[in-house]
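Researcher: Here's the sequence for the chain we discussed earlier.
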Amino acid sequence: QVQLVESGGGLVQAGGSLRLSCAASGRTFSSYAMGWFRQAPGKERDVVAAISWSGLNTYYADSVKGRFTISRDNAKNTVYLQMNNLKPEDTAVYYCAANYLGGAAQFIKEYDYWGQGTQVTVSS
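Model: Thanks. This is the structure I predict for it:
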């Protein structure tokens, strides 16, 4: 069992930056691939970025490439999402998810555990 708690969301102006954190419980965090997803009102939940359990492989949605960076610190059981040059269309609830021994998976069905989400609002 893994419990995930996101933090770092908030209100920011367009062009600004935020860093989201996702703290995981449990001793086997390093065995889990981690993903960040987002869901805007009235829209489906979509992948933003993912990182393999080894940290060697990453995936980014086209819409965030060059602006967002996913990273992990296994010593702190934490995965991060650095978001730069934020745009109003990045406004959504952001969720982190864990996938046991997975790669940088893109699809919701591949993830076993989910956090409760953190709101990110980007004003124009």
